[in-house]
Amino acid sequence: MSNPAVTSARRNEAPTELVGQWRELLGRHAAVSCALEKALQKDHEIGLSEFETLDRLVDAACQKYRMTELSQDIYLSQSALSRAVARLERDGLVERSMCDLDRRAIFVQLTDKGREVYDRALPTHRSVLADSWDSPTGCP
Fold first, then answer.
1. pTM for the model
2. pLDDT, tens digit (0-9, with 9 covering 90-100), for 81-120
3. What is the DSSP string of 75-100?
């Protein structure tokens, strides 16, 4: 059984260096993600999750990417990835297909339109990433 006084004291301690670094990382992630989301939406009408999905498909350099493997290679949850892929498919940027050998497996592949959107959005992504990485200012 834990001592309530000790637990309370631990909660009230000043943040350790590690906690401070963690909070800085979270703040940077939020600021950079927000800046990327805004720029990609404004200039290319695509969200950050959709861009990251396209980016992983391009990096994979394969015709088809198994959804289960994609979910392991991307920071999105399985459900968030499924929603992102559904939006990309709706907009004609990716296609989904079932595996002939394993009907449970679903493949995703980039379409020509998806490659075009990605190629146009890539400079925006990289520029905003570089600009906001060292000086995250939040997201108004």
1. 0.81
2. 999 999 999 999 999 988 666 667 888 999 999 999 999 9
3. SS-HHHHHHHHHHHHHTTSEEEEE-S
